[in-house]
Design goal:
mainly beta, 16-stranded mixed sheet
């Protein structure tokens, strides 16, 4: 169980930043966490598939996401075992190319949206949308300004009044690649605020560097563009599946 928890955490930290690419590629990954040693690993991005490898306490942790099959595998290389679960939408966030400009909430369960008009946000043209959650448990409306060129949210106003904004700072070369530097600011109700930065690679359609408040950072290096072998996204022969008992609702596992 500890293996699953550690791996899930590490993959969560990386997948949200680097799994939206249109182009297949491999890269080294470095993540910096305050007061901890840097985490280093590899990422392989194929069509609707992703593999991440990280070393934690001298143990290699591997996760494979296959959204085509809606399956995720977590591999323990030390005892040659794996766990399997259903892959959900959050495992590989959709790239900007999959967002529908005329219906940005398409594919989101229990979410409806309607266009309110067009406005300028931080010098860029954006379509203004109202999103509404139709479930009773999470009912509420959010305003959403979608950049017409990049199809990213330039501004979001949450139901509680918090505001998130993105603005293009300029162009920079990162590890030999041309990128756009974006700044994201969050203003919470009560006065709390934070600022982060992302370096977006238009060719890969993904971030190649991110810097978060508090010293958190992650970056792709040694990027190699090209088709990824199918065997990278399959459980190796000889691995045994571990099935975790599920609660039957009466406190008994099954």
């Amino acid at each position: 169980m500890r293996f699953q928890l550690i791996l899930s955490l590490s993959v969560f930290l990386f997948a949200s930043a680097f799994a939206r690419a249109e182009v297949e590629f491999s890269a080294d990954v470095i993540q910096k966490i305050p007061q901890q040693d840097d985490m280093q690993g590899k990422i392989f991005v194929g069509k609707d598939r992703m593999r991440t490898e990280f070393k934690v306490n001298d143990q290699t942790m591997i996760q494979i996401i296959d959204t085509g099959r809606q399956t995720a595998y977590m591999l323990n290389t030390q005892n040659r075992s794996y766990m399997q679960r259903k892959a959900g939408p959050g495992d590989m966030p959709p790239g900007n190319d999959t967002i529908q400009a005329d219906n940005p909430c398409a594919g989101m369960p229990d979410i409806t949206c309607r266009k309110l008009g067009t406005e300028e946000v931080n010098g860029r043209t954006a379509d203004k949308w109202e999103f509404e959650n139709t479930t009773q448990a999470q009912s509420g409306k959010m305003l959403y300004w979608l950049d017409r060129e990049r199809l990213i949210p330039l501004r979001q106003m949450m139901p509680d009044g918090s505001i998130i904004e993105m603005r293009l700072v300029g162009n920079e070369k990162i590890n030999g690649r041309e990128t756009e530097k974006w700044e994201t600011s969050m203003q919470r109700v009560g006065g709390q605020s934070s600022v982060s930065h992302q370096w977006f690679d238009p060719e890969l359609n993904t971030n190649v560097r991110e810097e978060q408040p508090g010293g958190y950072a992650r970056e792709l290096t040694h990027i190699i563009i090209g088709a990824q072998p199918d065997e990278l996204f399959a459980v190796p022969a000889g691995y045994e599946e571990i099935i975790i008992p599920q609660d039957d609702g009466q406190g008994k596992g099954r």
